From TrEMBL:
Lineage: Bacteria, Pseudomonadati, Pseudomonadota, Alphaproteobacteria, Rhodobacterales
Record organism: Roseovarius faecimaris
Classification via InterPro entries: AAA+_ATPase, ABC_transporter-like_ATP-bd, ABC_transporter-like_CS, ABC_Transporter_VariousFunc, P-loop_NTPase
Protein name (database record): ABC transporter ATP-binding protein
Pfam families linked to this entry: ABC_tran (PF00005)
GO MF annotations in UniProt: ATP binding; ATP hydrolysis activity
Annotated ABC transporter domain residues: 4-228
PROSITE patterns for this protein: ABC_TRANSPORTER_1, ABC_TRANSPORTER_2
Keywords from the UniProt entry: ATP-binding, Nucleotide-binding, Transport
Amino acid sequence: MTVLRCENVTKLRGKTPVLSDVSITVPEGARIALLGHNGAGKSTLIKSILGLTRLSGGRIDICGHAPGSDAARAAVAYLPEAVAFQAALTGREVLRMFADLAGERGFDTGAVLDRVGLTEAADRRIKTYSKGMRQRLGLAQVLIGQPRLALLDEPTSGLDPVSRHDLYAIIGELAARGTAVLIASHALTEVEARTDRIAILRKGQLVADDTLANLAAAAGLRSTIHVRASGTQEADQIAAQTGGARINGSSVELVCTPHQKMDRLRQLSGFGADVTDIDITPPGLEELYRHYSKEEAQ
Ligand SMILES: Nc1ncnc2c1ncn2[C@@H]1O[C@H](COP(=O)(O)OP(=O)(O)OP(=O)(O)O)[C@@H](O)[C@H]1O
């Protein structure tokens, strides 16, 4: 079921379009990474979905409700990039307050604080929290009431690798329970393995929206095939016959487009026992991102 539907969303700032005809849908349980350079329009799109900024054109629908309506607000949870809480309150008090505001009287603050790793700090004032701890508290607030849609703006900025890992694990659990998750991010490598679809905004236009594999195939980006040979002579022979690059030990590296891949593998299987192992590395998100950004710039 579609949770979020943006249709031809356009936003002008003065006469300058900061969002141009953006159409994107997010079904329940999906994790979508929203990527783009500084100023590409990510925050503007998120603010539009929250109903905090008026559209110049197009429409947005959240579970059948208009952005900013009571029903939409009840369905959406938001984690801003620079999350700010009342410094004099404790983590537990803040979470209780948000749960009460959301009408979630039965909300188990202790369990959620535990889930985000804040049990020990639960009764300390927010002013003593590090950036990472505030971010974790922000995520705890997102978990109140099982939202239909979670909008996360740069959720891992300022977090150490372990905290990032924990945060994506929690996002994964949220999505597994059916929440649609839209994550605006600059951190390409970390969203690569942890989201289901990649959407790229460039200068207010949506230039890509698909799985990483489909986008890579559509762009014709090349994969790398690492071939291990049974010995150095065999590796030399494989490199000579395939045009591959001879690398250290008894390995050969070949690059191929999506269309060439199966032919390459058939060719390699012709070497029989001279080939002892094959690894294929698909193009990564950074390469893809560069491709779609460049393509649009031309
Ligand atoms: N309140 C505002 N008034 C005028 N222009 C604005 C306002 N907010 C954003 N903009 C402009 O809208 C465009 C999109 O900005 P937006 O903040 O949505 O980008 P972003 O992709 O979120 O960038 P970043 O990655 O830096 O957060 C930019 O050109 C920005 O200068």
